[in-house]
Structure prediction request, 838 residues.
Amino acid sequence: MRALTRRQVIGGIAGGPIALPFARVNARNSRQTVPLLRYAGPDSGMPNPFQVSPAGPGGPILVSLIYDTLTWKDESGIIPWLASEWSISEDGIVYTFQIEPGAICHDGAPLTVDDVAFSFTYYSGHPYVWAGSDVVESAIAEGESVRITLKRPYAAFIEDIGGIVPIIPKHVWEAVDDPLTFTGADRSVGSGPYVLAEYNPTEGAYRLTANDLYWRGTPKVAEFRQVTVPPEAVVQATRRGEIDLASSPDASVRDILADDERLSIHESAPLSIVRLAVNTLRAPLDRKEVRQAIAHALDRQLIAESITRGPAIVGSAGVVPPETPWFNPNLTQYAFDPDRARELLAGEQLTINLVADARARDPELMIPMLEDVGITLKVQSVDSPTRIQLLRDGDFQLGFMTHIGVGGDPDYLRRWYAGEETNAFAQGSIFEDEEYMRLGEEQAATLDAAERRDLVFRMQEILAEELPTIVLYHRRFYWIHDPEVFAPLDTWGGLMNGIPFPHNKLALLES
Amino acid sequence: MRLLSRYLVLALCVVLVNFFLPRMLPGDPLDFSSGDGLGAAVPLTASARAQLEAYYHLDESTQNQLRSYLSGLLRGDLGLSISRSAPVSDLIVDRLPWTLSLLLVSLVLSAAIGAGIGLAAGWRPGTRRDRWLTSSSGMLSAIPEFLLAIGLLLGGAVGLGWFPLFGGETVFAESRDGLTGILRGGLDIAWHLTLPAATLAIGGVSAFALVTRDATAGLQHQPWLVAARAKGLNERQVAIRHALPNLAFPLTTFFGLRLGGVLGGALVVERVFSIPGLGLLGFQAIGARDYPILQALFLLSSLAVLLVAFLVELVYMRLDPTRRSRQ
Prediction:
């Protein structure tokens, strides 16, 4: 067994952090109490692990304010949270966590090792969809620690499961057979820094109050409100002072709010990805040269600047975004080069089908670029569920998609193509490459950070060469905020599995 | 009795169509995509997906799903929303008052304004006033609902700042206990519903104006109107005291017909102004392919139309003895 200190964890032994060049700390070191923070966020249903909405990342972030996890992330890497320290067996199967002794639930009951063990056991029958906790074989309380045994070594465990799975109170849930329909008054009792004071399901609004008994100290924001605001009204609502924190994917908000003395814009790390899924089993895209020709034919900088109305962050061919911990900077990239594209196509004229959401504007820009090299792009505009269905059925050649979840632990590179993730953006991941899958399996089981980094970098090299997905660009999110009320915090690799939200609970705590 | 059994058969057909219609849409309720670029971060492992499919009976055959749906309906259980993890009946009970109040207020406004315009236009049919009123109300109502809504939102809420930007009420407002609190709450809701109700009212004015105008024009040579004028009443008194009551029948019939569609919601207006009614719920449910919500909303609006049609037939039977004897 190896015991890990906080420094080692941040340094990367636990299968996570490598380097932190992108980390930008913007949080003010203020101890002043803020009475109210109003955030424009979505209606995410009842904020507990079983009833929170699985659509969009608003739900798990809200849950993270009410519930605690074993580990957490700050701007520099993974940090201990409910687990003050932990050790991992040499074979990477057994994790032993020491639990903070002072943690208490919102109803006053102490949060113990029994609650931690119970949580992982309960999730095996009632999964928390935001974490793949089915890798857990058993969780047993032993004195002041919890011993979690995995079915197989899993390098992402500390970040992707320990840092995401909410610890629930045993006394609330142990008698609940159907947590999806449980209506008990204590169904949102956690041990996190905020207590759910009120949820208005009709308006999709939440009122959270600071947990005065929080084991890490009273939060500096006394009340946190999350209110559903339509995207079109976000800028006006913040201007009017009705909202203190809101996001926009459009860089033009910087110009719109340039003359506003009260508001500031915080740019998140580029954790959103805009890409083309490629059906590598269908001609002519089963040929690598055609995929590479498409990558060369697209002026991705122009597309990105036109759509985001801001500086372009052209996508890495290896999928992992620049400015994130696992990014391999030494990959084959595909500069805009129509001559090279024509050369790769050797004069062939092709017609390719693209399935895209009806509201996506990128395909319109791609049509003339591809036409220029001899590829006729037929765009099939559909609504989002139809696109996902077509991609799942393999009834496509190219599929346009935009999503987040590419900033955290890189095991998603394996899960997409191994078919282990069944979410919307994993659909259309069609790539059969033995070496790639072997590397994927190996990195998932490798605890040594440097060794794992090499494996992940090699996976990116294969992706960059074979292009089973063509990354167009990465997007930032522009967070409008009142600096007097809130100081954004950029989390290392994004919150949880790469969510670019600045209201990490650390930003709301006193210290 | 025969009429009732005919409507019951029709209602059963509606139930079946409502069950199959959402399932004919491509897509899957477990895809959980919000489609805004921030969506779909949920990892959802294959085993978790399988558990959810089993929980919502999505892994069962269509016949079994239909059987569960019908037995649930007989128990008054509309099912559990997949995207919201909440009973559908609770969601509808929460949202229904918003849609009803919005649409009823706008319907009453449309009827009142439309009747006034129609009466003024039809009183002197063929004159310049008639042409101007008829065409201008028609033009106003011809503006697409979403354009009108956006225009009013930009003008009244963004530009002038007189009205709220979104929502049906001020969330987490001060206590609404006691008479003053209730009054304050009512005024707050009225403030929030002004622009959406105005949008719907403007859109509906023309239809009421045309019905009233035609009915009024047909009254011109009625002997009791001539008699009223002969008694020395001025034109205003003749119109309001004698003509208007005679317009009640066509107006009420038309109002009733529009009422049947009320439960269908006001999708566009609720979306633009973020009013938490059935229309917005339906809009979100279509994007999420949330079968239980879609089934319930289709059922509710279809049954409302059937109920109104049934009642109208009953009224007609009362009024028309030949139909009664046929039945």
User: Anything to note?
Assistant: The first helix of chain B runs from residue 2 to 24. Chain B is about 75% helix and 0% strand. Chain B touches chain A through 52 residues (CB under 8 Å). Chain B has a mean pLDDT of 85.
